[in-house]
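Lab notes, practical 5.
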Amino acid sequence: MDNRRFPFQNLDARAWQNLALVAIFTIYIVQIGSALITNDLFNSLGFDYRAFWSVGRIANTQGYPYIYDLELQAKTQQPIVQKTPKQNFLLNTTVFLPIFILPFQVLGLLDIDFSFWLWTIVNLAGLILYLQFFTQSVFGSRLPTRMMAFLLLGFPIYDNFFMGQVNVWLLICTGEFLRATLNRKPLAAGLWLGGLMIKPQTLIIVIPALLLNRSWKTLLGFVSAASFILIVSIGLVGPGGMIQLTKLWLGYVAGMPSNFPDNMMNWRMLGFHLSRWIAPGIGGGIAVVGTLATILAGLYLWLRPLEVHSPEYSAALLGTLAATCAATWHSHLHMALLLIPLLVYTNMQKMLPDRFLTLWAFFSSSVMFATLLLSALMVWGGSPLIPGFGGLLLGLSGLALNLFLLAWSIQFVRARGLAYKVNRSAVS
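Output from the prediction step:
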């Protein structure tokens, strides 16, 4: 009789998930370590932070009216890139409104290497503390450790920290918007919604949705916050600076090299690849149709006015933000952090199935690992990966998650709406 014991025998689903979480964490650490060992900081790791830090440094040395000067940005960033041997310089631009540059003006006083790690530590601590605060405030209990692990190891959070992005701010603004709404403080909710102006493309569906829902006080709060942000921004850079920023925004919509539309999580990404591989007309047509259909689906959620404490409201809000991530013109996977407060809320309310948190943790990260492995095998075999194929797979994983959430929210809101109609008919 063979009494030998082999590893990983008789493990249940929970144990396999734990092993998978460890594997994902290991992959992330290896990728970060590889970037550090190859001295690739601010070319891959911290790529977006390089742009944020550079405008902060320009604000300190030249003044705010010059922060959107691309020549100055290039002059500031080139010495950073040249630290890496044989690295081609790619200018990464910042298109935030001037008021949102203020934190980077402080960080621009520091050495970029030190400031990047300080930025990373502060954001990671802030993320964890805020998620605990949010759940304690809304539910009176701490966020379960296992849920925290699933959220933190999801690819969007890894991508946010790898790139040195600002999406923890989006997460906090979304969470505070939801908290204020639940606490029947619509003006405060609107003020927090104004914080999403750091990435205005996040507002393309939620503002019309609030109009449909007749959330007038919330909209008043948003208009107040947006007006303050715009007035301060104009005061910082003047009309000329705002004109430069507008040109950069138009460049982002049309496409710039540092946009990387090939790995976004939206319909634009799919159209980009189809245009390159099939025909521009077909790719562009599919992107336009998909975008318009997604926007209409997001607005469909609000055709019936929703009461803020109803389960349908939070489900509709989650679907609206997911539709935004799929439809808006600039949407990388790290922007999905704005969904997290709604994921936590709907899951802890026993609305959103646990399986979606499993998808959040494993789907895109598994696609990333598979792409890296496939690329390595093809290079080893002397046949490089098809250009853009890895970005397509990763982008599709994000697009699929967004559309899954949108479809779930529509089904949930429709089911509740039908039950409401049946109950009204029975009463009458």
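Observations recorded by the TA: The first helix runs from residue 13 to 37. The radius of gyration is 23 Å.
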